[in-house]
Amino acid sequence: MTEKLPKGRLRRPKLTEKQRYLIEYLWNDCKMSQVAIAEEIGMTQSTVSHELQKGNVLNWDHLPRQAVMSLSSHARIKYSSARGQYIATQRSIRHGEGSLFTPALKKTIEHWVNDEHWTPEQIASKVQSVDISASTIRNWIRHGMLDVKPYVYRRRKSNKLNKRETEIAEQQARKKEELAYLQEKLRDQNALIPRRISARSESVLTRKQFGHWEIDLVCPAKSDSDDLTHRAVILTLAERKTRYYVCIKLGGRTAQEVVLGMKAFYKEYGNYVRSITADNGSEFRNINFLQYVQKDQKTKVYYAHPSSPQERGTNEYKNRELRRYVPKKTTFSRLTQEELNKITDKINNKPMLKALDGDTPEHRFAKEVVKMNRYRQNYLKKKTAELDNQ
C-alpha cells in the first residue's frame, strides 16, 4: 500500500548521483539551458536551478552585482556533480546538534511520568515547560536518558523496532562513508570545504590547546558620506586559551581588505595559529578568504551557527572591551593602527580574575609562545637525529 500524503502536500523527487553527473555534462560541456536539462532528466526547472547554485564552484563576491549579471549564465556557473552530491549527502545526515535535553527538563518529565503517571502525549501537549514532542520523550526513554519506573511501560520491545533501529544505524553509517569519500574527492580537486563548528576537536572546545582563534569584524556607524575613510572597520582576533586579543584596522569590509588584514596577522602570529572560528558573514565565507587561510596557510576554518554569537564568546567579550575605548555610533576614520595597538595592549594587560585566575592575557600568551617554540625545537632535533641514524 502506498503512503498517502496530507492534502495539499507534494513529495518532491530527489536527484540521484547519476542525474548530477548528467547535469554536469549537459551544462558544462553541451551548454544546454536549464529548461532543456529539466526535460532531459525528468525534473522541474527550479530543481535544476537550485542544484546548479548548490554545486557552483565559482564565486563572484568580489565583483559588483551588475558586472556579474552582465555575464551569461554558463559563464557565471560552473557545476560540479561531486560538490552537489557532497552537500546533498551532508544535509541528509542528522548530526544531532543542539540537543534540547537538560537536567531540569529531565527532572520535570520524570516527575510527570513516574509520580503523576502521565503519558508522553499528555506531557507534550499540556505541560508548558516541556517544549518537545511526545516522540522525543519516548526516544529519550528508549535510549535510557530518562529514569522511568519499570511498570510505566508494560509493552515488550518489538523485534520490528529493533530491526528498524538497526536499519537506520546502517543507513547512517553508509551515508557517513559516502560523505567521507566525497570529501576526499573534493580535496583531490583542490575544492575549499567550509567546516561546521561541531567538527572542532574537544581540545578546542575545552581550551586545553593553544593556537585556536576566533575572528570578527567591528564596524563603524553608518554614514551617507562618500568619504572612503568612513568605511574603515576593525578586524579582531582572540586566542581562546589565553584570551589574547589582536586588532587590525582595514580600509573596508571587502574580501580583499580582509585578506590584507589576515596577511598582516599571519606575518606576526602565523606560527601560533592552528584554527580559526568565524561567523557566517560574507567577508569570511568568501572564496578569497578561504583560499588564503585554508589553502595557502593550511589553517582549518570553522563556521559558527547563524545568529549564535555565544559560540564565539571570547571574541564577543573582547569586542565589548574594545567598545569602551571606541564607542558605538562613531567612525574609525581618525583612528590609526598605532592608537589601536595601544588600546589592545591595555586590554591584554588587564587581569582576568575568573578566566585566567588573575593573570593577564599578555603574560599567558607569552608563556604559551615559549612552550610552542620549545616543542618545535625538540621536534626538529628528534627528526634530525632520526635522519642521521638512517
Please give a structural write-up.
With 390 residues, this protein is an alpha/beta fold. It folds into three domains: 76 residues, no CATH class; 50 residues; 180 residues, Nucleotidyltransferase, domain 5 (2-Layer Sandwich), CATH 3.30.420.10. 51% of the residues lie in helices and 8% in strands. It is built from 17 helices and six strands. The relative contact order is 0.08. The N terminus is likely disordered.
Shape: globular
Largest sheet: 6 strands, mixed
Report the β-strand fraction as a percent range: 5-15%
CATH topology of the largest domain: Nucleotidyltransferase, domain 5
CATH architecture of the largest domain: 2-Layer Sandwich
> Structural class, judged by helices and strands?
alpha/beta
What is the number of E strands? 6
- List unreliable stretches of 5+ residues: 1-9
Strand order of the largest sheet: 1-6-5-2-3-4
Question: What do the pLDDT scores average to?
Answer: 83
Quickly count the domains.
3
The CATH superfamily of the largest domain is known as Ribonuclease H-like superfamily/Ribonuclease H
The string of secondary-structure elements, in order, is: HHHHHHHHHHEHEEEHEHHEHHH
Distance between the termini: 70 Å
State the helicity in percent bands: 40-55%
Radius of gyration (Å): 27 Å
In DSSP terms, counting alpha (H) and pi (I) runs of 4 or more, how many helices?
17
CATH top level class name of the largest domain = Alpha Beta
